[in-house]
Amino acid sequence: MLTSLRGKLIIIFILLTVSVVIVSSGFARYKQRQFALDRARERERAAVDLEMIDANIHSVLSWVRRDLLMLRDLSSLHDLLNSTGNSLPKEALHRLQTTFISLARHHEIFQQIRLLDANGREVVRVNRKNERIWLTSDTLLQDKSDRYYFQQAVQLPPSRVYISPMDLNIEQGKIERPLIPVLRYATPVFDDNGHRKGVLVLNVFGASILDLLKNQQEKVNPGINYFLINKNGFFLFHNNPKKTFGFMLNGNDNFFRDEPQLRALLHNKHKGAVIRTSEETNAGRCLPFDASI
Fold first, then answer.
1. 290, 263, 84, 47: which is closest to 185 by C-alpha?
2. Which of 153, 202, 268, 277 has a CB 3.0–4.6 Å from the CB of 186, allowing a cystine?
3. Range of the domain at 103
């Protein structure tokens, strides 16, 4: 009798154990499937968000070139460019300065608006910092002949515009603090005889682009990380700000160093790519500016 009861209990125990194992296994498979679905939805959402961010970047920058070429065609600028002698015509200079100040007031995206002469010396410079806009005095105008954006732009044919990579603003040979990320749009200017006379430069606040990613990063769950890199793989935006602009701040963080197989993918994806690395979804874009249009 006891033996029979013991046998039944053993059978019941085995059945219960098997049932628990089956249920646990089924639940584990369900959790795995659910995790995979969640990740797929995460990647899909990140891809959509990345396209939206890309469209917003182009929207922000689309009219910068138009403003630059509008300045190039100003009569006050041409009066300056066509002037002879060692002194600039004061009336034309004042009109150009006034136009630069007006443009800076109406477009918060511009960090600086400048005219450089053919040797790279600043002739007119208007600055914006927070809500303050001011004209740089003659004694504080700088020589920018050694800056890459001047050297690139001054060689261009008429109507071509050089777009610099995004980097940190430099004043008096040093990185400005607090850090100010900038892009520069620049085009050469000529007198009526076709002689090359200098370069117009618009400094665009990098924050106008970086804030788009920052705002999106704050909306998503911790499993999605947005990033922006330059053509060499250095971070311009990362959810850890200490990883950004390492190419100027002696940092070592580089996306292509960590993920070398993804270099070609990001360079070929003009609207960015959604990438799975480790346990996270990384949605990023390469900003490969350093070209003329």
1. 290
2. 153
3. 63-205
